[in-house]
Amino acid sequence: MQNKTIAKLICILQVLILLVLTGCSAQADTQDTEGLTPVYYINNDETKTEAYYVQIDAEGADEEIEALLDALKTKDPKARYKAPLCMGFDIQNMTLEDGILTLDMSIEYKRLVFTTEVLVRAAIVKTLCNSEYVDAVYFTVDGKPLKDHSGFEVGEMNAGTFISNDGNEINTYEEADIMLYFASADGNSLIRVYRNKFYSTSMPLERFVVDELIYGPGSGVEGLYPSVNPSVSVLGISTKDGVCYVNLSSDLLIPYGNVPTAVSVYAITDSLCNLPNVDKVQILVDGVVPEILESSYEANTDMVITLDEALKIQSDMLGE
Predict the structure, then answer these.
(1) Domain boundary at 92, 127, 162, which?
(2) Do 231 and 158 share a domain, yes or no?
(3) Statement to judge: residues 223 and 314 lie in one domain
(4) What is the pairing mode between strands 136-141 and 234-240?
(5) What is the average pLDDT value for the chain, to the nearest integer?
(6) pLDDT digits (tens, 9 = 90+) for 139-162
(7) How far apart are CA 315 and CA 313, in angstroms?
(8) What is the domain extent for residue 129?
(9) How many Å apart are CA 55 and CA 72, to the nearest integer?
(10) Is position 88 within any domain?
């Protein structure tokens, strides 16, 4: 009896070992990506893109691009991910010229949540740029150039657009409470505004703050005006030993409206100095410190006023 029991146990163990080995073999087979093409989808939490390898059989540029787009439209029967081209919008037109693929999205594309839109864009670009025929992708929406959440034209993108300096993909987004300083109506004072924003963790928060300043206050709050010329471009930004080095284009030196350059400088400085890792700000223009600017700046609260005070200035200017 005991021998039979032992024999049964050995048999069961053999079956279990066989199942494990079979499972490992199957898993290894699924990891063999030779001859397959990575297609990027969005995880169900909409926090990152994930690559799945599929067989693409196509000849020529048009046929291969169509096959990749079809793959991006294909829903996963196991519901492991979301297909980027099943998000409620359509591709109305596409053209390929000199390696630049232009995709014109329907107007519904604008209804995507900011973080979802970035992930959709990343998935499409990284998938299509795997084609030997596509060097970059350019998006339009209903015939007009796609703009990011800050109002700037996105432009041409390739797979490298979605890789951060440390080699990690743009995958995650965080919520941040930031403090921005915009101008009063007379251009001589700054008004502090709190904003709650989502930003990509592959982007330094310092860069995000400066981008938001350049974008401006928008039209939602009366009494707030742009404190930085919206034509300014960020050429580079980094922080070391508590000093944030901000390299901007020469448009910074061109007053916007009635806002002098000094106010723009302190709008940038005060906004950045509210970040925990920034104590001072060094502003460069086209890579050098202009003579009209000091070597570095600390926050200046003397020129900061409340929104009520800003509205009074505006009222006095209008003679109300």
Answers:
(1) 162
(2) no
(3) yes
(4) unpaired
(5) 83
(6) 999 999 988 765 667 778 887 666
(7) 5
(8) 37-162
(9) 13
(10) yes
Judgement on whether residues 182 and 157 belong to the same structural domain of the protein: no
The pLDDT of residue 63: 93
Tokens of 134: 């596509």
DSSP 181-202: EEE-TTSS-EEEEEEEEEEETT
Question: Is residue 125 domain-shared with residue 212, that is, in the same domain?
Answer: no
The total number of structural domains that make up the chain:
2
| 3-class secondary structure, 280 | strand
The answer to the question of residue 1 being in a domain is no
Rounded distance, CA 176 to CA 196, Å? 6
pLDDT of residue 169: 56
First to last CA, the chain: 105
Q: Is residue 233 within 8 Å of residue 211, measured between CB atoms?
A: no
Q: Give domain status of residue 12, yes or no.
A: no
DSSP letter string, 35-83: T-EEEEEEETTSS-EEEEEE-----SHHHHHHHHHHHHHPPPTT-SEE-
